[in-house]
Amino acid sequence: MKAIILLATLKKQGLSNTQVLCEFFRDKLAAHAIECEIVKLVDHRVLPGTYSDMGEGDEWPEILTRVLAADFVIFATPIWWSNFSSEMQKVIERLDHLHDGIMEGRGSPLEGKPAGILITGDSDGAQHIIGMAANFFNAIGLVLPPFCSLSVLWEGQAKGADTTRDALLEKFREYDSTAETMIRQLLAYHRPG
Description:
By secondary structure, the protein is of the alpha/beta class.
């Protein structure tokens, strides 16, 4: 089985709290024999727009192919002003083309696929993001099983905080049980193709 994590950090370089959380979760998935690919969106040319292919130089069509091939889809985002990062918002806008197909009666290639959400931040906003993601997942056919969000809100993740990778991993280990529950739920809702 395969999972894909769409990592919406805004950091091209340097330590990313959200990327470290994705790597933590990837290692948890590996312990369940689930292969996981992390797609760091800022490393790709994902053009703005609301179609699956926005033309020359757009890397989203290739990423979308990998999303469609995965058994599990995970959104991973930091909190910025109680919302997704701009990179995650761009993904939602690009996936809107699938919603167009649903509205035209063609169905969704993501229908029934289990999904989850990883969130990092230093203050509140996770519930708002989970609610918006759940609504969007529902609109394009993804299934958000119960307990399939993992949010770590901690002052050590504040903008400009001098937190090390080791300190982040130590904090994330406090969420071992939450991660394991999330994986169990993803597996429980998986419907082999």
